[in-house]
Amino acid sequence: MQFKYFIIGLLFLFVGTTSNDETMIWNEARKLSWADFKANPDPASDAVALTASGITFGYSVKTSNRRIVDFSTTVEAHFYPAKSWYIKEKGDDHVLGHEQLHFDITELYVRKFRKQLDRLVVNQNIKKQMEQIHVAINKALEESQKTYDAQTNHSINVEAQKYWETFIAEELKKLDKYKSQ
After folding, report:
1. Rounded CA Rg of the chain
2. Domain parsing of the chain, residue ranges
3. pTM (2 d.p.)
4. Which residues partner with 30 through β-bridges?
5. In 3D, which of 53, 48, 25 has the Cα closest to residue 94?
């Protein structure tokens, strides 16, 4: 029996990222600091800070006699320092907590993605199924990030910010089995 491995490249939610860009993988024990935000602030933006994060996804399939017999995946939440920025005079711990939660939301969707991938059964349409899940997860992540900013008014609504912090912590805990190592 002959086996072949095909590796499909990493797909990025954050368009324009190159392999040379510095990234940080989400880690429960390591929170963001302002030193991680290395881009120059956008003078046209009303924001105090911007967190660039996204999901990387890769997979490989194992074939035998041109039939897919197995697959493996990698899914990670990444933070992009060279695309993330803040205004030093306005950046405080509260704003940093808001930006950290953007990264935590990305991790939440990584866990949801892994959970869905974990439920897949090997079949000849597995690549298409994984791509469909990938697209759906990225769309849901984008919507969640927008809703978070809208409801918290970009951290200005302190009560909504606290709600989101609690909500995301609870959701992450529910999917602890799928957390990034």
Report:
1. 18
2. 3-178
3. 0.88
4. 27
5. 48
* Structure token pair of residue 89: 């005079």
**Token pair of 54 as six digits:** 């996204």
Structure tokens at 17: 């990222």
For the chain, the straight-line distance linking the first and the last C-alpha, in angstroms and rounded, comes to: 35
> pLDDT truncated to tens, each residue of the chain (181 aa)?
333 332 222 233 333 344 457 999 999 999 999 999 999 999 999 999 999 999 999 999 999 999 999 999 999 999 999 999 999 999 999 999 999 999 999 999 999 999 999 999 999 999 999 999 999 999 999 999 999 999 999 999 999 999 999 999 999 999 999 998 8
Q: Name the amino acid, one letter, at 106.
A: T
Q: Which residue shows structure tokens 């881009």?
A: 39
Spatial neighbors of 177 by CB under 8 A, at least 6 apart, are: 115
Amino acid (1-letter code) at residue 53: S
What sections of the chain are H helices per DSSP? Answer: 93-118, 126-152, 158-174
* Beta strands 53-64 and 67-79, pairing class: antiparallel
State how far the Cα of 60 lies from the Cα of 55, in Å rounded to an integer. Answer: 17
